[in-house]
Design a protein that fits this description.
Helix content is 0%, strand content 49%. It starts with a strand and ends with a strand. It is built from no helices and eleven strands. By secondary structure, it is mainly β.
Length: 123
């Protein structure tokens, strides 16, 4: 059983940067491709980015491409989401999740989830 704990969310101004972290425990971290999702109030959970088990493959949703960077440190069992040039539309609860197969973008395809961390971007 894999446990995931996100951190780093807070209130920021538009244009600011923020780095989210997701620490994994209880399993073999390198077995899982890791994704970031977000959910704004009243909206469905949205895919943001995914990174393969080795870190060599990465995919982003179009709205964050060029602004967000996903990375992982397998020695620390941690995945990161660096978010630059933040916009009010990025306001959401951000979740990390793990899946055994890279390339998945639907929430139902992920096996393990963190509790989420709130990111609020003010204009």
């Amino acid at each position: 059983q894999v446990q995931l704990v996100e951190s780093g969310g807070r209130l920021v101004q538009a244009g600011d940067s923020l780095r989210l972290s997701c620490a994994a425990s209880g399993g073999t971290f390198t077995s899982y491709a890791m994704g970031w999702f977000r959910q704004a109030p009243g909206k469905e959970r949205e895919f943001v980015a995914v990174i393969s088990q080795s870190g060599g493959l990465i995919y982003y949703v179009g709205s964050v491409k060029g602004r967000f960077t996903i990375s992982r440190d397998n020695a620390k069992n941690t995945v990161y989401l660096q978010m630059n040039s933040l916009k009010p539309d990025d306001t959401a609860v951000y979740y990390c999740a793990g899946t055994l197969r890279y390339g998945r973008s639907r929430p139902g395809e992920y096996d393990y989830w963190g509790q989420g961390t709130q990111v609020t971007v003010s204009s």
